[in-house]
Amino acid sequence: MLVWTVCAALIVCGVLLRHPYLFQDVQYVLAKIKRRRFVLKCMQTNYSILDRFLDLVKTQPQKTLIYFKDEMFTYREADVLSNRAARAFLQAGCVKEGDVVALFLGNQPMFLWLWLGLLKIGCPGALLNSNIRSKSLLHCLNCSGATTLVASEELLDAVKEVLPHLHEQQITVFILADRCETAGVESFIDKMNQASSEPISKELRSHLTMQSPAAYIYTSGTTGLPKAAVVTYSKVWNFSLLLATTGVNSKDVIYDTLPLYHSTGLFVFTGAVERGIPVVLRSKFSASQFWDDCRKYNVTVIQYIGEIMRYLCNTPQKLSDKNHKVRLAVGNGIRADVWRDFVRRFGEIQIREFYGATEGNFALLNYSSKMGALGRHTFLHKMFFPYAVIKYDADKGEPLRDSSGFCMEVEKGEPGLLVTEITAKAPFTGYVTDLNQTEKKKLHNVFKKGDLYFNTGDLLRIDEDNFMYFHDRVGDTFRWKGENVATAEVADILVLTDCVKEANVYGVKVPGQEGRAGMAAVTLMDGLKFDSTVVFKHVEDFLPSYARPRFLRIQRSLDITGTFKLIKTKAVEQGFNPNEITDPLYFLNEKERNYTPLTPDVFDSIVAGNIKI
After folding, report:
1. At residue 349, does pLDDT exceed 50?
2. pTM of the entire structure?
3. DSSP sequence for 381-423
4. Which of 30, 60, 322, 488 has its CA 20 to 30 A from that of 170?
C-alpha cells in the first residue's frame, strides 16, 4: 500500500511539474460550470438579481448598501427609495409595462434607485452615457425606443438642445430637481417625495422572464454611432457572479469609481448585491483622493481599468501608500509594467484581470496572477466554453479561410481574432432595433457547416505556456481613457466644420499610454485653409473629451480601396511622428484651447510624457 501511495504521489508531482497550473485550470472551469448551472436554475425559477436584492432587504435590512460622499444608505433605505421612484413613474402616467425609460445622469445613488424602481415595475432602463450630446443623444434615445427620459439637473442644457426633437417624438422628459421652469420638462424629485414607499406588487413584473431586457447598455461599433446592447436578466446574473469568481466574499467592501452607465460600473453594484456587501460609489474617479476614500470606508476590493492603475502609480509617493485594507483589485486593461509598479508601491494586492464585452457571450479571468495576461488557454476550458483564436486578414478586415472555406486557428505566439461559439447556453442577444449590426457580429461556418460564432473584434495571442494576451482591436473602434471611440462618429462631427471636406479617423499608439489616442487625417474644402480655432471649438462642443482627436494630419487626398473604403492601416503605422510625415500635423493643445502645430520638439515632449494628452 505504501509503495502505491508513493508511486501515486510521484505521478501527481510529475504532472504538476509539467503542468504547474493544472489545479487552477480545473478549479476555474469547475467554477464557471457551477456559475452556468446557477444561472440555468435562476432561469427555471425566474429568480432575478432584483429578487436577490429583495431577499437581502428582508435578511439584512440595516446593512449598508451604498456609501456616497458623507451619506450612507442601507438595503432597507434603498428599497424604500426605489419603491418611491417606481411609484413616481406609475403615477405620472407615462410608463406602463415593458416601456423603456432612458436614464441620463452620472454616478449618484439616484441612478440606482431609478434603475431598481424600473425593474420593480417590469421596465428596462436605457443607460445613456452622460457625455453624449446632440446627434448622439438623439440616436441613443431613438434606437432604445425610450418613451421617457430622466436627466440630472446639471445635464438640463444638453436636454434643452434636443428638446424640440424629444417633443416631436412624444418623449416625456423629467429632470431630477424639486421644480423646473423649462417648458415641456417636468421635475421628478417632488414626485418621488410625494409617492408612497409601500412595496411594489410582483404582478407588475409577472410578464418578465430571464430573457427579458433588464437594461440597454451602449457600446461603440463600426457604424460610428453607439449601439444599444441588450442586457437580459440572465446576462446580469452572469456579470454579477464574476465578483464571486474572483474571490470577493460577504465581508468585503468594494469601491466603484467607474460610470454606472457602463457594464463595468453597473455590474460592480449588481455583483455586490449578489454578495450582499456594501459599495462605495464615487461620482468621478480621483487619483489624489483614491486611497483616502479606501481608508475612510475600509475598502477591501477595488475596481479598475488600466488607466486608473496608471494614474494611481503616477501620483506623488506618500508614506501612507501601503496604509489601507485593500486586498483585491478586479478589472481589465492593466499593462504588465503598471501591474508591477502598482503592487511594489501599494502592497501585495491580488490583481484579478478579466476579459469580456457587454454584448459578448464569453469571459476570461487571469486567476494565475500572470502579469499582463487575460487568462489561460486550456483544453478543458475550450471544451465546455467553445472559443478559438483564428487567423485574421487586417487589410481585408475579415478572417482568413482555407480552400474549404473554413477558418484556421493561429499558431502559438501569433495574434488572431478571438471568436466564441453562440449556443443556447452561451447566447448572443445583439443590439436592440439594429439587426444589421447584430448580424455583423456573427460568423457563420467557422469550423464546420452550420456553426455560428460571435466575433469579439479583438486580436489575442497565446504564448508557449498557454497564457492569453490582448493584442489589439480590429475594425473602426479603438479604446482611449477607458472609453470606446467610434471613428465614424468622430469623422461625421469633423466634416460638419466649414473647412474640413473629408476625415479618416483612427487610433495611434502613444508611449506610456493605454489604448490609442484619436488621430484624424483630413482634407480641406477647395480654397479654404485649416481654421484651427474653429475646429477646436467644434470638437469641444460636439464630442466628449475622450473622443476628441488628439492629432490632426492635413492631406491633399485620402487613401481609399477599390470599393471606396478608407484605408487606415498605413496611417496607423505612421502614427503622429513629424520626423516621418511630411504633411502638416497639429495636436490638441488644452492649455491654448487650440490645435497647434505638432513640431519635432513637441513630439519629443509628448513621447517623454512632458506634454499630457
Report:
1. yes
2. 0.89
3. HHHHS-EEEE-EETTTTEE-B-TTS-B-BPPTT--EEEEEE--
4. 488
